[in-house]
Specification:
This protein is α+β, with helices and mostly antiparallel strands. It folds into 3 domains: about 5-170, Uridine Diphospho-n-acetylenolpyruvylglucosamine Reductase, domain 3 (2-Layer Sandwich); about 175-255, 2-Layer Sandwich (Alpha-Beta Plaits); about 260-330. Helix content is about 30%, strand content about 25%. A hairpin with a 4-residue loop joins β11 (about 205-210) and β12 (about 215-220).
């Protein structure tokens, strides 16, 4: 099923007699397998409002992300949160969509400075599990009262409603960027260096450790500013740092963003969020090939197929999500971090309110 309008979508959901598998571009096969009728959002496409002067954009949920990014690039603007493209990592095809990006709360390396997708999302329209059309937020940033459904929908993976329209705040594209690259460092030393870099006044907006063990630090802005801040940062950190600029720098961060180091490699991929200060201990427990982002707060781990990394890590302050795994593995293991009983009760209450019949991606999140 591929509705061509919000009203069509409402009718389809209202008339559903069984589970619906909500699908955007089909690039993110995350979560427990869901059996049901496929509901595609690709017919709800197009940029409905773009005001470069106000740094705001509104797009239908089925709009290809590439189309949105091309429109922004023409005006020297971008989404602040650097959304990940999962196709290489997941081995999928298709086109990432705006709605899929929001449903996954897809956020890249710049999150350490700009926040997550949900932090740039200022308005949504969606159809809930009863077929009702709901609007929350708006097209400008302002203080409002009431329920913040905008933040709730980001990261809900299509289990609370089918997104039809999303509004974003934007940022200008900086004039240039530079990346500082270290020699290989062990995880503990890498986290210490990243923490020091992020604590400086030099506006580091990317801090990661690649699969090769090298720490990469990104600075963006006007050319003279980037040169000054880069030199000051190298002096503050000490040691030898290679400086890579422009398009070559951007290529490094696309690789970190999309976890290209694990693309095409056999095995499962886990995404572990943790306090950066506790990351080295967790890395030692993981015994896996690793990429670290967000100053150590995000760990990507490549492990043997079917391995329950979450159980092996034991208790820690954070959460582990199985991002890439076979259908059998995703059916056998909890894909998302099991929630404490009070939080699980709240989540179940929300699903009962927004999807009382349980037709939207039922069971996907566990």
């Amino acid at each position: 099923m591929r509705p061509a309008s919000e009203e069509d979508l409402s009718e389809i959901v209202r008339g559903a007699r069984g589970p619906l598998v909500v699908r955007g571009g089909g690039t993110r096969a995350v979560g427990r397998p869901v059996a049901g009728e496929v509901l595609e959002t690709g017919g709800l496409s197009g940029i409905t409002l773009y005001e470069p002067g106000a740094l705001t954009l509104v797009a239908c949920a089925g709009t290809p992300l590439a189309e949105l990014e091309a429109a922004l690039a023409a005006e020297g603007q971008r989404l602040p949160f650097e959304p990940m493209d999962m196709r290489a990592l997941m081995g999928t095809s298709g086109e990432p969509t705006v709605g899929g990006m929001v449903a996954a709360n897809a956020s890249g390396p710049r999150r350490v400075q700009a926040g997550a997708c949900r932090d740039s999302l200022i308005g949504v329209r969606f159809v809930d599990g009863a077929g009702a059309i709901i609007k929350n937020g708006g097209r400008v940033m302002k203080n409002v009262t009431g329920y913040d459904l905008v933040k709730l929908m980001a990261g809900s993976w299509g289990t609370l409603g089918v997104l039809t329209e999303c509004s974003f705040k934007l940022l200008p594209v900086p004039a240039t960027e530079a990346t500082l690259v270290s020699a290989p460092l062990d995880p503990e030393a890498a986290v210490q260096v990243m923490a020091r870099a992020l604590g400086t006044p030099y506006e580091v907006n990317g801090a990661a450790r690649g699969a090769d063990g090298r720490v990469v630090l990104r600075i963006e802005g006007f050319g003279e500013q980037v040169a000054y801040r880069g030199a000051a940062l190298r002096a503050a950190l000490g040691g030898d740092w290679e400086v890579i600029e422009g398009a070559a720098s951007a290529e490094i961060w696309q690789g970190i963003r999309d976890v290209r180091a694990f693309a095409g490699q056999a095995g499962d991929v886990w995404r572990v969020s943790v306090r950066p200060s506790e990351a080295p201990e967790l890395v030692a427990r993981a015994k896996a090939e690793l990429v670290m982002d967000w100053g150590g707060g995000l760990i990507w781990a490549l492990v043997a197929e079917g391995r329950d990394l979450r159980a092996e890590l034991g208790a820690f302050r954070g959460h582990a999500t199985l991002i890439r795994g076979s259908e059998a593995t995703r059916a056998a293991l909890p894909v998302f971090q099991p929630e404490p009983a009070p939080v699980a009760a709240l989540a179940q209450g929300l699903r009962a309110r927004f999807d009382p019949r349980g037709v939207l991606n039922p069971g996907l999140m566990g």
